[in-house]
Every structure is written in structure tokens, then in C-alpha cells.
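ESCALATION

Customer reports they have been waiting on this structure for their group meeting. Please prioritize. Original submission:
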Amino acid sequence: MMKILLIQPDNKSTVGLNNVALIEPTGLEAIGGSLLNDKHNVRIVDLRAVGKDPDKYLDNAIKEFKPDAYGFSCSFTPDVYRVLELAKRVKNDYGAKFVFVGGHHVSVYHIDFNIKEIDAIIIGEGEVTVVELLRAYEAKIPLSKIDGLAYYDNNSGEQLKTKPRGLIKNISEAPFFARHLTAEYRKKYYLGIRTSLACIETARGCPFKCDFCSVWNFYRGTYRSKSPERVVAELKSIKEDYILVTDDNFFSDVKRAKIIGELVKKAKIKKLYTIQARSDTIVKHPELIKQWKEIGLSNIFIGFESVDDETLNDIHKDNSSEMNEKAYYIAKKHDVAVTASFIVSPSFSKIDFEKLMNFVKRLKISVPVFSVLTPLPGTKLFNELKNKLTITDYSYYDLFHPVLDTLLPTAEFFKEFSNLYKTSYKKLNLRANDVLFVIKYIMMGKMSLDHMIKLKKSMKSISTPSTYTLPLVVVKS
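Update from on-call: job pushed to the front of the queue and completed.
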């Protein structure tokens, strides 16, 4: 048995939606569950949720816990430099004997982590690999014998890779997220106005291959789901009131979604849900919205991406603006809020910005989310455009800064981009259910006025052009 410290890095960026949501580190909770089953002593440190001095917090945690091994999560591209910095710190300052990293960005672009301070890189799903990795470390078995790894070769300085690991065949058998390992931070996890938040995964992967997305790359074009019975069993174990389903398309398997809904109703589970779904699925199966609304569906995140069908075709979305509109009105009919996401291309003209804003106004979308088209490593878009990138500093890959040349002057682009948020949220009208939710949670002590003020300040920040030209507070190693 070893003591394993799993670390979620803090995000030092000054721009973005950092103050609008803080989601539990499900990747670390997943491998934490596997390590606990293998009789290790595991602790998770979430540096995003520890206040103003995460470095001091980590120092104290290391001194108290005295880990035998350290694991870092790096799922998001802007976190790369912070993970590299922390890996060097634990090696050089604390004499860490074994350091490993995993996560989404790590898996699709592991060359970024080819440094001597990182002993092993987990590629892809980590639940099985991490157990075999630490068993090998304890038994002094060479890393070359473990599937699904990359590692630094001390002789050549090159990165070596082992045989690819197959995907987990039956994810229903994967352990529940080890949520008790984040007990110290759970009250700080939230999604917008929704506090008392927990995440659940019911499936992995996506059958679609959008150019801007790397999910299909990570999961090798597969879609695997957990059984309805397994999903409901895990839901019963969750204490929080609000559930974020992390599946990229919860309604991908319509029959399964209906069965889960029936079992949730039968079990009398009373929670509120946010899900992600495709608009074409909603249009083809509006009965899903009706069914899930009755058992707590509160919000749907739909990737509208564009108001222009030609653009949707170009990015291989396999969907249409008409479908997006129809899905929006189906949700509205059943009083289910829609968070509609749109991609703003660096090639946008003023007319394009105006066209997008007019679409949002016409549909009266109360919660639109706008992001700048960013060729993230691991995507088809990155492979096509990497030679045209004007910024290679990952600190700017936060979906709020263009890393390609803009058609408009940069200052003008930021003015138009921030105005999308300013105009959209200027007359934000919460639904009656949302207002009641806020009042109820403040009275119950589950939400503070400080939280609401924090959200308001965040929205003001991303609605201000000068925010985007401020120096990013980042650490580069």
C-alpha cells in the first residue's frame, strides 16, 4: 500500500468563465476509486477550491500526508504550464520519487509533458492503467511493460510510448467516483446559480466527429454506456441536490435515456439535472424532454455553434440551424432552460457579430455562451491550422482569446466579442423557477449573496473589452 496524492491544478487565468462554474475533478475521483480498491491510501487536493494561496496549501498537504507518489490531472490546455511547474516543484523541493500525469490534454498531446520530472504519462482512460502503473512501480517492473503509457527516456531525452491500452469494455463495472475524497471542497462546487452540485457520468464518447472537438479522438470514435441500473444506483449515493450529467450527449441512446428516467421516477429520486444533448435528437424525440422535465430536468446545454448552416457543415457538426431553433422551442415549451453555445470565428466581420446577436435576440435565448474558435491540440482543426497559429502560448487557449489572425483589428474584435455578452445578459430574466431556487437556497444556507455577487462580477468582466487585453496571470515553466 502506498500513499498517493492526486492534485487538481488551480487555473491562474484572469479571463474566462472561471467564476461561473467550478466542477468537481471527476477524473481524479475516478482513478481515486480504482486506487482505493487496490488498497492504497489516497488523498485529492483541489487547488482551485482552497483560497488565495494554493501553493502554501499544497505545501502543507505534502508535509502532512507525506506521499509516496504524486498524480496530476491536466484535462485543459491552459493548465499545461501549471502542471509542469508543480511537477518540478514536488520533484525538486520535496524529492518526490514518482510523479505521473493524466487527463484529456495529456492523452491527446502527451509530448508537452516530456520532462525528466514526470516519470509516467497515462494515455487515455486511467482507471486500469493507474493501478497497473503503481503496482509496477512498487515491484520495480520497467514502465515499458505497462500498456497505455508514455515516459521520458533518461538516456536520449526522447519520449517513449508503450503499447496502446484497449478501452474499458464494460464501464458499468468502473467504481463510482470517489466523491468522499473531495469532501473538503464539495460545498464550493457549483454551476452558475446552481450550488450543491455533483457530477455523474453515464456514458463515454461521442459518435460524431466535429472538427473543433477532441472527444472522439480521446475515445477513439466509440460510444459506451453504463447500464440504467448502475446509473440509478450511483444517483442514489449522491447527497447533492443538483446533478450535472457529464456525458457529451446524454440522449445519444434514446431507449436507455427513457429507461433511466423510468427508474429514477420509480426510485423517487428528487434532484435537478443539467444535461448536454444534440438538438436533432431533441427534435426527433421531444418526449424525452417531457419525461425528464417531470423528474427534474432543469437545464440543457446545446451546442448550437453557428447560426449559419454552411459553417455547421464546414465543421462537420452534422446538424442545422433549423434543428437548433426547433429544439430550443421544445425545451421552452416544457419550461426547461437552454444554455446555447456559439463559436465565434476569428474571421468574423461586424456583420457576422450582428447576425449572431440578432439570432440570440430573436429566440430570446437567456443563457447564451460565446467562445472563440480555438484549434485545441488533439482536434482535426489543430492539425489543419497549426501552421497558421499566431499564438502558441497555451495560456491563451482559454476559448476567449483568438490564436489565429482576426479579420477585424484585435481591439475591435474584443469589443464586438464582449458586446455579445454585454447585450445578451443586460436584460437577463431568470425564469420563475430559477428565482425561487435562488431564494430557497439562500434561506437554506446553501447559497450566499456573495456567490451571486461573484457571478455578477464575472459576467461584468467578460462583458468588458479591456478584460481581454489585460496580461494573463500565468506561470510558464
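Sent to customer with the following note: Residues 3-161 form a domain with the Rossmann fold fold (CATH 3.40.50.280).
Escalation resolved.
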